[in-house]
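Hi all, long-time lurker, first post. I run a small reading group and we've been trying to get comfortable going from sequence to structure in the token notation. Rather than ask abstract questions, I figured I'd post a concrete chain and ask someone more experienced to write out its structure so we can walk through it together at our next meeting. Sequence below, copied exactly:
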Amino acid sequence: MAAIPALNEEKSIAKVIVHSLNWVDRVLVVDDGSADDTSLIAARLGAVVIRHERNLGKGAALRNCLDWARDSRVDVLVTLDADGQHNPDDIPRLLTPIIDGEADVVIASRVRDGVPALRRIGGKVLDRMIAGGGDVVDSQSGFRAYSRKAFEQVNASELGMGVDSEILLRAKEAGLRIVEVPVTMEYKNLQTSTHNPIYHWLDVTFSVVKFISIRHPLLFYGGFAAIMFVTALVFGFETLDYYTRFGRVVTNLALVSIATGILAFLSFFTGVILFTLITVMRDERFR
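-- Answer (accepted) --
Happy to help. Here is the structure in token form:
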């Protein structure tokens, strides 16, 4: 089954659906509050259509795709964009590793030479944030295939563009096998107003930071606390040194030392409190 989140894509949705049906038995289109004929065209072409009355974000649309796949008991779910940047004829390349039992999640990894410079730079930064510069080359590609095991175990809570990163982080956390296959994608005819790379980068970055802060609160807040503590010590030492030599306090240095010390204290205890709450919640869930 192929699932396609869509927003005002009446010009390209027909081609995506028709070409997808060459490789899958069913197509689901989640119309995220389009003001055009996206839903009408999709329905006329035989796609299952879920329509949001208002725009809720890609995350909400993709969550509908995962829920529908679980309820329909499909074997493999392929997700791709409705704007034409993904080539449905690449679907067999994504399906092969899952059918052969080699992967649970397959990512269509974009060839970087075909990606605009700003997207390419932002993508590399996000890839390192999510995969640590390791096994995932293109963490932002929404063209993916999921085995039943994957979409039954992994869910999404993000509403915006950070949903792809969230799903990948959850899949890695669940120990699912992730494989990438190289593909080329089309960017020339995309509308930049709906594919703003700066907005995308910020949205995904905040999502990743939020996910890490919740999943690993001691590491996240403890790391920040350590930086603030060292900063407080440095400025505190400078304040004392200046006082011993000249007999007066430099207010700016003293204020920075106090402020960073307070931030270190608050950050550390925030991490401890969140870690305790999450541990209790996990224990309750498994009882």
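A couple of things your group might point at:
The chain has two domains: 2-193, 217-285.
The mean pLDDT is 83.
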